[in-house]
Amino acid sequence: MKIIKGLKHLKRQPEGSVVTIGVFDGLHIGHRHVIEKAVRAAKESNRLASVAVTFDPHPVKVLSPGRYIPSLISLKHRIRLIEEIGADKLVIVKFTKSFSKMPPEKFVKNILIGKLRMKHIFVGENFYFGRGAGAGTELLRKLSRKYGFGITAVKPVKVSGRIANSSLTRDLISKGKLREAARLLGRPVSVLGTVVKGSGIARGLG
Question: What is the C-alpha separation between 129 and 137, in angstroms, rounded?
Answer without folding.
Answer: 9
